[in-house]
Description:
- The protein has about 100 residues and is α+β, with helices and mostly antiparallel strands.
- The chain has helices at about 10-20, 50-60, and strands at about 30-35, 40, 45-50, 65-75, 85-90.
- The strands form two sheets. The protein has a three-stranded antiparallel β-sheet with strand order 1-5-4.
Amino acid sequence: MGIVLHLPLAGLPDALARLAAARKPDAALSAAFKYGRGERAQGGRRFTDLDEAGIAELLREVRALVELETWVTPDRRPGRERERWLNVLLTGSRVTPP
Length: 98
């Protein structure tokens, strides 16, 4: 789900809920965000940056998904070694929404 990092933060809960509903049973979803907090524009594109606390806050709003694993990786592109990515693996929640 490389595209979700380009959505506004306010739109992420709805987008993730829709992706959760569209996935096959027992399927996992993965997403990557530039590491940080907040929204920004760079090179004519918009980004929503998240860290571990940010993804936890987001998933409190998206009860249909639970976090399986989260990890941080460096950007591997030349000249961007200082940039980091937050990677998250998500699956369906066993919690039934109210």
